[in-house]
Design goal:
Chain lengths: ~350, ~350
């Protein structure tokens, strides 16, 4: 599988990935290499990863607690303090081995430590492989507000090793798959139709490659999200608000990121049908596809009010307007669409039908 | 006084500065403008600043506590939370009105909020005018370790209004003057000789202009400090360690930044004499010039040990080596010089003589 190489970063796959990583470490002469893991990837992925490293380096392992709830400035400060204690310097590097929490937080920690050290992402979840680890968005949450604090900064490289997916359960895989379905919705109706038929994740490597290619093609054209890159936020405006609300609420089961944006993609599908001409049949296709894969979530009226009140913190907003990415049709997005709030309530009714 | 314009940012002076700022605010259509101040600049500088703003904007004032001790991630988190509460979005901007703490911290806060919003620096201390506010180094301290966390990111513009210096006392002015003396030492022996003779700060505008020009000429050639920019750290390797130690210590009076690097420039002058050929007469000139302006600091043996142990956190270090900027002569620096620790002890003896 060929590497995907852009002007600012490259994504490598499988054996080729390890080969490129080994060459990079060999030539970079890092003073020290820090591997950031959580307790899961420490146990499940680190041994296999270390078995594929050829050189003899001064590695230090830094473990953080797993879970979105720990993706915050407090955890960053702990990691910065450990880096200082372990004598990290500007010529040190950080390898982020984990899911989106590890790659997002690790990328931010590295980007700010002594005003920036090199980092490398080794995503271990499907979600991180197709989304979080590529594109240079680093950051952490601020209370319930997702990714409010961060910078855009590219890793030295991303290495995708689909073998790590064997450490995940079905629910985690489905969560990542939601982002892949999004890639179809915003860019490629054929890819959407292919993905809909996927029933097993055993041969997913080629699809991961397609998803990373779609994301990269978008990011390269607009790295700092001035225009085109916004399309990657389809389903995320309402999806993030749903995710934030469930993360903070004591009474609700935690929703995985993909599960939340699956809800968001149905809701924003409805808005698309009403505002940007998404045909009814395509809306129904979107709803059925997601409800076949992801358990339907029940929202009380008070839940919906709380979720909508979180929308004002969305990063795409400006001048008090909430800007949505909607669809004119599957594969054909529209950016910066303003949505009246009564339509959002209707969207939740449509979802519940 | 002409503006200093570089490819990535510009520094404007006096009335021309306000004029350019007013034009910038007029054309930028910011959704909201946040002015970051501390309690001092809130009282002493904000009224005059607001009097010079022509348009009618949606301003919000955010006040932080004054002092280096508050330049930390905790304060950043407070400001980020206030920005969120006050509905800041990606099209909002931040004006940092204050000394180095406000411009360093404010620049970092803005650079990370929703992955980066515009910011403008209005330095109100001599130190911030000639050093902190220009060059794009943003950041905060991590415990006693100065500027460990930050990013390099340029403001939209810097506006230098020397009138704000009237709000400072003699000691604060002298602190900023130490950085100007450093500009002479690393780049221009004539400028050094001019500065030595300065006895009043009444007509300092032209000298500020020269200092900003020297700093900018260096930064433009090497914005991310790979080589040339390191010369700006002359006096700062030991000076920062002295400053950090006095900041944390309960038993010592607080040293201002310029006072600490004045000590550092004498100490590193001694190292320069021993290692890079700084002539004895020039070393004596440096020592006398600084001791004439800055009160001599007394260091116990235990102080010196603690200060030297902080050196390992210096950002210029790599691979366990402490890298110094030294002088071959006044105006002629050498970078990446390794220094044996016994020489550092001798340097403190020379300082105490």
């Amino acid at each position: 599988m060929n590497s995907i190489i852009t002007p600012t970063y490259a994504v490598h796959f499988n054996e080729k990935g390890y080969e490129t990583l080994n060459k990079h470490l060999d030539k970079s002469n890092y003073s020290k290499i820090f591997i950031l893991v959580d307790e899961n990837t420490h146990n499940d992925c680190l041994p296999s990863f270390m078995g594929n490293i050829e050189g003899d380096y001064d590695f230090e392992i830094i473990e953080i607690e797993a879970g979105e709830i720990n993706k915050n400035i407090g955890t960053c400060t702990q990691v910065w303090e450990v880096l200082s204690e372990l004598d990290a310097d500007r010529k040190s590097a950080m390898i982020n081995l984990g899911g989106g929490v590890v790659t997002d937080l690790g990328g931010f920690v590295a980007s700010c430590f002594k005003r920036g050290i090199d980092f490398i992402n080794i995503p271990t979840t499907l979600l991180a492989m197709v989304d979080a680890s590529v594109g240079g968005k680093t950051g952490v949450d601020l209370g319930p507000l997702k990714n409010q604090i961060g910078v855009i900064n590219q890793p030295q490289m991303v290495v995708v090793v689909p073998e790590f997916l064997n450490t995940l359960n079905e629910r985690q895989l489905q969560s990542g798959f939601a982002e892949m379905l999004k890639h179809g919705l915003i860019r490629d109706v054929k890819y959407w139709n292919t993905l809909k038929k996927v029933t097993s994740f055993d041969d997913i490597s080629t699809l991961i490659y397609t998803s990373v290619s779609i994301k990269n093609a978008v990011v390269v054209q607009d790295p700092t999200e001035q225009h085109l890159r916004k399309i990657l936020n389809y389903g995320h405006t309402l999806g993030h608000a749903v995710e934030s609300y469930f993360l903070e609420s004591q009474d609700h089961e935690l929703l995985l990121h993909g599960e939340a944006i699956a809800v968001g993609m149905i809701l924003e599908g409805y808005l698309s049908h009403k505002l940007t001409g998404l045909p009814k049949a395509e809306l129904e296709d979107i709803k059925m596809t997601f409800l076949n894969r992801y358990k339907k979530v029940t929202f009380a009226k008070s839940d919906i009010d709380a979720i909508l009140s979180l929308l004002k913190f969305d990063k795409k907003n400006s001048h008090g307007n909430i800007n949505f990415v909607l669809l004119k049709g599957i594969g054909d997005p529209a950016i910066d669409v303003k949505v009246p709030s009564n339509l959002m309530l209707e969207a939740f009714e449509y979802y519940a039908e």
